[in-house]
Structure formats: structure tokens, C-alpha cells
């Protein structure tokens, strides 16, 4: 058994469960685990003096961080139709206006309460706790409504 196979068989479950604590969707978690082990495989020769566990879990943290960073950029773009702040990105004004119009139309299709909670949380930056208190419901109920809105918007904007 080569060193990579040994590392993979020893750590695959631990890595998956570590990643799964931070990433909700199974497919995203599985993709991330694959990316982590691809990184380890590429750098296995360079890392022979460093314990594999240190490299694996440092890579896990980096991949999780990258995942959140990417989704945050995507999420910001989806919500407000703003372009990421990368200098290479260009976005003409008519396309921007079209995207904003599409977003507004989609928001109108949401149930009124879902739309209201979504805007309060994402635009007005009101916390789940505060929304739950104001609406006399649980934070879980607020979370479900906002996730419902996000799923709808993401599914219909592309």
C-alpha cells in the first residue's frame, strides 16, 4: 500500500465528519473531501517530515474557509447584484439593472412573510434572534424561512 492510500484509508472518515460539521450539503462536503485529498496527494512528497494529520486538517480548514468565502461572494452577488471586488470583474450597467429587476421580481413571488424576514435579515442586518423575538417564533423558524427564500432566489436567478 503506498503512503497516500494508507493516509486516505486512515483519515477519510475523520475528514468527512470534520467537514460535515461546517458544510450542510452532503455533495458539497464530499466534493470538499475529494479536494482535500487531492491536495494531500499532490503534496505528499513535500510533506514527509510533517505529520499527515497536521497537513490534512490544515487543508480542511483552508478548504472550508475558501468554501465560505466563495459562497459569500456568490451570495452577495445573488442578493444585491453587486460584482465581487476583484479588479478583473467588469459588469455593465444595463446587465446590472436587468439582474436587479429580476431579483426584485423574484422577491415579489415569495410569500409576504418570507420576503419580509429575508429583507430584514439580509438587507437590514437584523439577527435571527431579534427577528424571532419580534415575530414571536423560534430562531429555527426564522432560519427555515430565510433559507427557503435563498433557495428560491438561487434556483431562479441563474
TrEMBL record:
Pfam family, one: Sigma70_r4_2
Similarity annotation: Belongs to the sigma-70 factor family. ECF subfamily.
Entry-linked NCBIfam families: sigma70-ECF
Entry keyword annotation includes Transcription: yes
Domain annotation RNA polymerase sigma factor 70 region 4 type: ranges: 102-153
The keyword Oxidoreductase appears for this protein: no
Protein keywords: Sigma factor, Transcription, Transcription regulation
Gene Ontology terms: biological process: DNA-templated transcription initiation
RNA polymerase sigma-70 region domain ranges (all copies): 7-72
One function term, GO molecular function aspect: DNA binding
Identification of the protein by name: RNA polymerase subunit sigma-24
Amino acid at each position: 500500500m503506498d503512503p497516500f492510500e494508507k493516509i486516505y484509508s486512515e483519515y477519510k472518515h475523520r475528514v468527512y465528519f470534520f467537514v460535515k460539521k461546517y458544510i450542510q450539503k452532503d455533495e458539497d462536503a464530499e466534493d470538499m473531501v475529494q479536494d482535500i485529498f487531492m491536495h494531500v496527494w499532490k503534496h505528499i512528497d513535500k510533506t514527509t517530515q510533517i505529520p499527515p494529520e497536521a497537513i490534512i486538517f490544515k487543508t480542511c480548514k483552508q478548504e472550508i474557509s475558501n468554501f465560505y468565502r466563495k459562497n459569500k461572494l456568490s451570495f452577495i452577488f445573488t442578493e444585491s447584484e453587486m460584482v465581487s471586488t476583484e479588479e478583473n470583474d467588469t459588469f455593465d450597467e444595463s446587465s446590472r439593472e436587468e439582474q436587479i429587476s429580476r431579483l426584485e421580481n423574484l422577491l415579489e413571488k415569495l410569500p409576504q412573510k418570507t420576503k419580509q424576514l429575508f429583507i430584514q435579515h439580509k438587507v437590514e442586518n437584523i439577527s435571527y434572534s431579534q427577528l424571532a423575538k419580534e415575530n414571536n417564533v423560534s430562531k429555527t423558524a426564522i432560519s427555515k424561512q430565510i433559507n427557503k427564500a435563498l433557495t428560491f432566489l438561487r434556483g431562479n436567478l441563474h
